[in-house]
Amino acid sequence: MHDLADLEARGIPSVGVATTEFVEAAAAQADALGYHPAMVFIPHPVQDRTDVELRAMADGALQAILKEISHAGV
């Protein structure tokens, strides 16, 4: 969250990507910081995924990330 805020303060549009396990934590931190970045949530967990599965997850999230980044900082 802090990195996203810093990047956006520098004029660099940003999107946070996290797993669904962190939806509530991300919302709580955003509320605490008073900063609500664009976020895309992917399925949890990722640590036990194969390279092929991770690539598929990334491919599946790409359009949502691009959509959010096109609106980030607007």
How does this model look, in words?
The protein is an alpha+beta fold. The protein has one domain. Helix content is 54%, strand content 14%. It has helices at 2-9, 23-33, 51-71, and strands at 15-19, 38-42. The chain has a two-stranded parallel sheet with strand order 1-2. The relative contact order is 0.22.
The N- to C-terminal Cα distance equals 18 Å
Give the helix level as a range of percent: 40-55%
Note the main sheet.
2 strands, parallel
Provide the low-confidence segments as ranges.
none
Number of domains: 1
Structural class by sheet pairing and helices: alpha+beta
- One letter per element, helices H and strands E, the order comes to HEHEH
Number of helices: 3
Strand content: 5-15%
How would you write the strand order of the largest sheet? 1-2
Shape: globular
Keywords:
2 strands; 3 helices; globular; 74 residues
Give a short summary of the structure.
The protein has helices spanning 2-9, 23-33, 51-71, and strands at residues 15-19, 38-42. With 74 residues, the protein is an alpha+beta fold.
